[in-house]
Specification:
- By secondary structure, the chain is of the alpha+beta class.
- The protein has 15 helices and 16 strands.
- The strands form 3 sheets. The protein has an 8-stranded mixed β-sheet with strand order 1-5-6-11-10-9-7-8. A 5-stranded mixed β-sheet has the order 13-12-14-15-16, with helices on both faces. Strands 2-4-3 form a 3-stranded antiparallel β-sheet.
- A hairpin with an 8-residue loop joins strand 9 and strand 10 (278-284).
- Helix 1 (15-34) packs antiparallel against helix 5 (137-154) and helix 5 runs parallel beside helix 9 (228-243).
- It is elongated, with a radius of gyration of 28 Å.
- It binds adenosine-5'-triphosphate (ATP) and magnesium ion.
- Adenosine-5'-triphosphate binds at residues 81, 112, 114, 119-121, 124, 126, 257-258, 276, 278-279, 281, 303, 305, 307-308.
């Protein structure tokens, strides 16, 4: 029968790899906890309109990348990111009436229909966080510190790029200046950017096409056109980052791909993962909650691309430790022996050990081979004489050492003692 294979742009994370993901996810949840963020889990799909209204009609995500499916009553879209659904859930469930700020994190898969490349998939994963209800630059600084801590914990030395894209007020003035600059070459812009010219010319600065890049190269910068409040906010953020010893670079080219950002935008960029170099991206979105139908509330957040983070960690040769292996494999032959082995294994599992018995009906030799190949830490062989005498030899597979053990009386406790003593000895070298 012909095998039906996986789609391009989607990845299998196999058991030999998933332990790495678990470690990264646990580390991320640990840092989130230190900063007071709690987890949210939201649906994989939402009404298409939610993303159109929040991510923005002029964005690549909405114009080109959404996976939209037809349901019976309506069309739905697989979430292309986590913020829209999170904010929808926050508004809908009354979290805006709870003590502020609300600090929420998520770990989810997201879907975008784009050109598949290394670090750019159709289905990918984001760890992200939202800080809701805090307008002060101290909140921006805390979110950035959270990301810095997260990347330090993972051992990813990415560079922080920050920018301010102002508020709607300074932006509308800036748009006029920018359009004036771009208008002589308007017809040369790529198709997408020609359509952006009227509605969102700032996005042209972010365009990846060669021609738009060269046209926008010396364009006036938003940072030179901020209103007094936005400038003060940006200056205070910079002072806070300096006080916390967080290095940054001001990068006027960062305007971010999504419409909802205001004031602070940032990216953490790694030179270890090739062309898709942005590991974390985020920013402030003070207008979004009001625009989505909630009471106007300032907020900001970030998202880390899990695939890109793990790519960077691998490129840097980070130590993920060894995948977990079996603590004790109990080899057996014969029905009575197998029953006894199953009982013994259960008693060990109750003590927290990973114990396994033979389930494939192999001979002793093949069972040893299995124990070796899967790197079991200890081996116990139960044959008819062991069952009769009630004693056996426990073999430490790393050292080859064998210890006599009593099978009938307190085996689990004895195993625990040996296990801990050996581990201590191994740690002490
Ligand atoms: P890019 O400019 O690389 O397309 P973006 O601005 O579209 O990124 P965001 O919407 O800010 O990305 O998403 C946050 C992070 O999620 C990115 O910095 C990246 O690490 C990751 N990411 C985004 N799109 C993809 C994708 N298609 N495949 C894998 N990771 C992605
Ligand atoms: Mg993108």
């Amino acid at each position: 029968m012909e095998l039906i294979t996986r789609n391009k742009g989607a990845e299998d994370i196999l058991p030999s790899e998933s332990y790495i993901w678990q470690k990264v996810e646990q580390a991320a949840a640990g840092v989130a906890r230190l900063y007071g963020f709690r987890e949210i889990r939201i649906p994989t799909f939402e009404k298409t309109e939610l993303f159109v209204r929040s991510v923005g009609e002029t964005t690549d995500v909405v114009q080109k990348e959404m996976w939209t499916v037809k349901g019976r009553e309506s069309t739905y879209t697989l979430r292309p990111e986590g913020t829209a659904g999170t904010i929808r859930a926050v508004i809908q469930n009354g979290l805006l009436n709870e003590p502020m700020p609300q600090k929420i994190y998520y770990n989810l898969s997201a879907f975008r229909h784009e050109n598949v490349q290394k670090g750019r998939l159709w289905e990918f994963h984001q760890f992200g966080a939202e800080m809701i209800g805090a307008a002060a630059p101290a909140a921006d600084a805390e979110v950035i510190a959270f990301v810095r801590e997260l990347l330090d914990t993972l051992g990813i030395p990415a560079k922080l790029h920050i920018n301010s894209i102002g508020c709607p007020e300074c932006r509308s003035k800036y748009y006029t200046i920018l359009r004036e600059y771009l208008s002589p070459r308007r017809e040369e812009l790529c198709d997408t950017c020609r359509s952006r010219f009227d509605r969102n010319p700032m996005r042209i600065i972010d365009c990846k096409s060669e021609i738009c890049r060269s046209i926008a190269k010396d364009a006036p910068m938003i940072t030179d056109n901020l209103c007094d409040e936005c400038r003060a906010h940006f200056d205070e953020l910079k002072a806070l980052l300096e006080a916390m010893g967080i290095d940054y670079e001001i990068d006027p080219k960062i305007v971010r791909g999504l419409d909802y950002y205001t004031r602070t935008v940032f990216e953490f960029i790694s030179d270890k993962i090739g062309a898709q170099a942005t590991v974390v991206a985020g920013g402030r979105y003070d207008g979004l909650i009001g625009q989505m139908g909630g009471q106007p509330t300032p907020a900001l957040g970030f998202a880390m691309g899990m695939e890109r983070a793990i790519l960077a960690m691998k490129a840097l040769g980070r130590d993920f430790g060894e995948p977990d292996t079996c603590d004790l494999f109990i080899a057996s032959m014969g029905a009575d022996e197998q029953r006894f082995a199953a009982l013994l294994a259960n008693s060990l599992r109750r003590e927290g050990f990973r114990a396994e018995t033979e389930l494939c009906g192999r001979g002793f030799k093949a069972q040893m081979k299995y124990a070796n190949k899967t790197k079991c830490k200890y081996l116990l062989v139960i044959g008819s004489s062991e069952l009769e005498t009630g004693s056996a030899k426990l073999k430490n597979m790393a050292t080859g050492e064998e210890m006599p053990v009593d099978l009938k009386d307190g085996f689990a406790e004895r195993f625990m003692d040996i296990f801990n003593a050996d581990r201590l000895a191994a740690e002490l070298g």
